[in-house]
Amino acid sequence: MESLTFRHTTAKPLAGTVPSTITGVVASGNLEVLLERVLPPDTCEVAIETPIAGYGPVWEAVVADFVARAQPGGIRISINDGGARPDTVSLRLLQGARLMEA
Amino acid sequence: MTLAEILAALFPGGHDVRVADGLVTGRAPFGGTEATVIGIDGDTPLGIEGALTLSRSVLDAVRAGTKGPILVLVDSDSQRMSRRDELLGLNECLAHLAKALLLADRSGHPTVGLLYGHSAAGAFIATALATRVLAALPGANPSVMDLPSVARVTKLPLETLQEMAKSTPVFAPGLDNMVATGAVHAVLDPARPLDGQIRDLIADLTTEDVRDRLGAARGGRPVAQAVAAQVAAEARRG
Amino acid sequence: MAAQMAASTDPQALSWYEATARQRVVALADPGTFTEFLPPTERRMSPHLPLFDLPRAFDDGIVVGRARLDGRPVLVAAQEGRFMGGAFGEVHGAKLIGLLRAALDVRPAAVLILFDTGGVRLQEANAGETAIAEAMRAIAEVRSAGVPVIGLIGGRAGCYGGGGLIAGTCSRLAVSEGGRISVSGPEVIETNRGAEEFDSRDRALVWRTMGGKHRRLIGGADAFAADTVAAFRAAALDLIGRAPAFDLATLEAEQARLEARIARFGDCRDATEIWARLGVNDPDAVPAMTTAAFDETVARVEEAHHDAR
Asked: Which InterPro entries does the UniProt entry name for this protein (chain C) (predicted)?
């Protein structure tokens, strides 16, 4: 298993008041994403556990793209990966952010 | 020990216990009352007919109302693996046998398992694991799945699994690991009279299921008890 | 938590088979009433899977909590069949057992178990096997206390291995077409006995032998539900109202029921022969029958209706 953590500063906090949510399932080609509103409003942290080693740069790019689009300030994101493709990861991250904004 | 030796040691005053097609049924005087004996001998797989034969004996004992102990002697294979058994509802038959033992226990019959050989999977759950207290004799070898099969499914080298098995009782076959998990309460001393050791276990019976507590104390199931307790506490907070 | 996710999903349309465990629970319950115990934020994950270099899940593949069903309090457990095949590991099993033990004090209107499991998780086999035995004992105690334990089976992993034994311990079972109940799975039988005994690639054979319609017709399940959350909800509500007691009379009746089944159908090679003997006019038509047509067929089958479980 490989552990990766990325920290970002955001321009604004994520909208909404939902304290936490989870989306996705740990399965082959899928992942679960747990979002918790527990960080300072200009901070986002994404921690990943993946069984597929060596894809750090890809994760870094996917997370950076998500942070730029969603501005998820205040959110700690924890990912259990089952070997998801980057587009699935992006989809789940955005899905999770939308649920937090509800 | 063979089944004959075990029966002789358990019932020095004689017994009326028979074995047919690997199924053990009968009665014997035991500690001033009458014990009901059921079991599986000779590494026999447990199928639908066998399960119902054993459950019939247990229900007969409950209906008789003697409250005598029910001894479950096990040297079995796993459940019988066949199209016919599944077609006719093996899950119902095995669950029925387990329920009969659980009902007997609730009805005041001490239910005691004695594992003296192999047992696995559905047969293990429906018999030995459905008793209030499960004892084993040294040399018993319960398993869920043997290591070569685990290696096939997990795609890990057998040598790796054998190494892991030494420090991780949670997955590896064998009596020591089932003791550590709390599934087997006690290992008996074959050099001492078996009947007295079984009577001692009956004298110490608890009403609650202590297996996760044993698993925590022995290290074979490090977190189960705490997790169950936490869920129960949150549920009770209502 | 996560309630928002499924709240927008219509229970009338949401497929039970396709839904996640979390979606099933939220959509099954009265809107907004589900509260999860030991939720994913607690991160009570398997301590053992990392040894096998396998990914973990924050809930270890089972969602447990309380909810209301038609206004009445229930305790609920739902297995996630997509994570490790919904199999019982140490934490997974302990969450179910904690819920069942609490039911003795909480006295809900029912405990609902949404099965979706291949059985014991091999990497934690001894813990999983022991947990199954603990669950069966706990169910016997809960039922003895007069609380119905209802199993709902229609997930992609089916209800196999020890899951099949726990199901057989429940007061009542509802099953859908896609739900399969069995001890040995098709692959396990084929591996041990050969493809002549069971060809696991023959999906029609799997469904005929272990599937929801066969189980319902022979009385192995008490209700047949269409593959929607709404149908399972209706079935659960119905079954809660007619749960058999856990006593000698029930088990004597079950003994007689199962013995009669073997005496009557023990020489049948295929489920269609059993269905014919049960009085089904056109057994070959059963697999393709709509839920409504199947309900009519079941209504005429005496063996499908009993209190012997």
From this structure: AcCoA_carboxyl_beta, ClpP/crotonase-like_dom_sf, COA_CT_N, Malonate_beta
